[in-house]
Amino acid sequence: MNKFGFQISRPRSINMDLSDDGRREQLLEEVPSYRLCIGCGGCTATCSAGQFTNFNIRRSHTALACNQTEGLAAQLDSCMLCGKCMLVCPRGVNLRGLIIRMRQMLGRV
Amino acid sequence: MSRYWNEYQKAIADDHYFYERSCIRQTFFPGSEAAFLKILREELGKDICDNPHQHTCTGIGYHSDVVPFETTMTVVARLFSLMKECGHKNYVPSCVTSFGVFTEVMAKWKENPALKEQARQYLWEACKREFEVPENVAHPSDIIYKFRFDLKPKMRFQLVNRFTGKPLRVVEHIGCHYAKIFPEQGVGNAEFPYVLAGMIEAWGGEVIDYPERRHCCGFGFRQYLVQENRGYSIANTKKKFESMEPYEPDFILTNCPGCSMFLDKWQYTIAEMEHKTFDQHGYGIPVLTYEELTGLLLGYDPWSLGLQLHQVQVERLLDKIGIAYNPREKYTGVDGKMLGMPSKPECLMV
């Protein structure tokens, strides 16, 4: 702590101008059905891995799109690629493909 | 267009004002209130009462949750009783937070007249006084705004950079309690803040419309009053500075005592903590109150306006406008004696 007795708090808001590194556009290009996602969270609700770990599909792809990647790769490792999320997705998003592509982007594959 | 803009205007009384001073301005910006009274009396020829028996509006305590609303209401009622004694009906609180407190109390009295009767009773029991609700409550900046074109012909200077001939680029900050609590009480509401922008445009300057223009200055009462929370306060201020920095403002014009203080003094703290200033030359961005700006353009002496007490030094701005000043008189009292001076007044990073 400095002589003032406090420090400048880090803002929790995400500045998209600074954080957009084009990953969202790349994901949309490589997994076109991702464009159909309405963020309903059905995938996350039915996810078996999400019941026992901190893995959260909706949060993961939102975080990657906002370039908030701290600890994200380890979360994605929890996915078993069972595909249950794809069975419940009302928009037919290729979620398994999305997760595999996100892992590649983060250097896990 | 004008029909819609009319909805963003407010009624501002013409004359016969009762002035209420701020709790903190006398310390940080000591010339502002005296300058306002001088401008109204000597330049505009208005009648304004400066009652020595006035007191706090409880704003800081009220917004910090240590003063209950009933107490605030009674204190406000006492101030209104002082106005009644002076025979005035137009209330002019120097502070934006006071302005917010008065408009809030009056709105509650209007919605619930029983509360007003309760305040009447409390005031009578406490000090045997009676009050009347003002016909008009206007912030001093509203009055300067109203008469900005009357003041312009009397001004010796304009907001023009004398070296380049271009308008000075100004960031304005109206303060949250001016128009965010009751938007209809502010000129331009909270959407299109125009009370300070109107002055800047009328006097030759250019208003910078930057992304975080409407963001809080960082005072926020509860974020500031507890030392451990001040990181939130200064984070707000830093966010504003980062947003305005690319536009290279010549100075910041403020409406509220708290905003003036924080936008000025946090620049030093950020410079100490992060070795960062938000102007090109490392001196910081000067902060002026609207009274100081009006006084400067009217030709008042910068040091009699108290500009030497600002954290960010103003000489570079005075040079740009072309205002003459005597550096030797900067730290001299009215009796000609030296008051003492900071070791590095012009430097933010010590």
What does this entry look like structurally?
The complex is a heterodimer of chains A (109) and B (350). With 109 residues, chain A is an all-alpha fold. Chain A has one domain (20-105). Chain A is built from eight helices and no strands. Chain B has 350 residues and is of the alpha/beta class. Chain B has two domains: 11-140, Glutathione S-transferase Yfyf (Class Pi), Chain A, domain 2 (Up-down Bundle); 141-329, 3-Layer(aba) Sandwich (Rossmann fold), CATH 3.40.50.11810. Chain B is built from 16 helices and eight strands. In chain B, strands 2-1-3-4 form a four-stranded parallel beta sheet, with helices on both faces. In chain B, strand 7, helix 14 (257-274) and strand 8 (287-289) form a beta-alpha-beta unit. In chain B, helix 3 (32-43) crosses helix 15, helix 6 packs across helix 7 and helix 8 packs parallel to helix 11 (195-202). The longest helix of chain B is centred in the N-terminal third of the chain and has 18 residues, at 69-86.
A few lines on this structure:
The complex is a heterodimer of chains A (109) and B (350). Chain A has helices at residues 16-19, 23-30, 42-46, 48-52, 57-65, 72-76, 84-88, 95-105. With 109 residues, chain A is mainly α.
Map the helices and strands.
The complex is a heterodimer of chains A (109) and B (350).
Chain A: H1 16-19, H2 23-30, H3 42-46, H4 48-52, H5 57-65, H6 72-76, H7 84-88, H8 95-105
Chain B: H1 2-6, E1 17-20, H2 25-28, H3 32-43, E2 48-50, H4 59-63, H5 69-86, E3 90-93, H6 96-111, H7 113-127, E4 136-137, H8 140-146, H9 148-151, E5 169-173, H10 176-179, H11 195-202, E6 206-207, H12 222-225, H13 230-244, E7 251-254, H14 257-274, E8 287-289, H15 290-298, H16 315-321
Parallel strand pairs in B: 1-2, 1-3, 3-4, 5-6, 5-7, 7-8
